[in-house]
Amino acid sequence: MGQDQPLTEAGSALGEEPIALRPIVAFDFDGTLTVKDSFTAFLKWRAGQRRYAAGMIRLIPAALAYLVHRDRGRIKAAATREFLRGVPRAVLEADARAFAGQVSRSLFRPDAVAAWKRWRTQPVRLVIVTASPDLVVGPFARGLGADALLGTELAFDAQDRVTGGFATPNCRGPEKVIRLRAAFGDVEIRAAYGDTAGDKEMLAIAGIQGYRVFQGTP
Question: What is the pLDDT of residue 73?
Fold first, then answer.
């Protein structure tokens, strides 16, 4: 999925406010709309139990280094290299669709989805802003009918295979606001929802600041 790519058509019905002028309602994904980290769950699902366990052992040095540098982007890149390096984009996209089809019902918080659906009836644009790779979250976003998805983008080589790095900064903390402004300009952020310190900058620019308001489990 390309950077800041809309997921639905940008048209509007006769007499309605053009969608490009509508305010934004921004949802974090992992832990807010979902009960757990979707990227970790995807890596485990795709690798299988034995391969995942072996990979986690090899990631111990990276995990120990994280205790010093505290850079979530670096530890995420290490996991991406371990489990996805060399995978063709088309294969990864197909796997992401299959994963979403299998786990959606057990992953989403029902109260978060209910809030999403309530906002869907309002003249706003619903945007998912996530640190997880947009390629993995994309099928979930399309299933929800998101107007746009802003996420961390995987890097691909000349043969369209995962390099193990990222094409964009980790979409967390101040980067969430940077990505929102880059995609939509100085538009009103009507509401924002998140569950960690990595969402505080996004929440700070929203009229309604929903921090850890969703607690439901499937």
Answer: 82
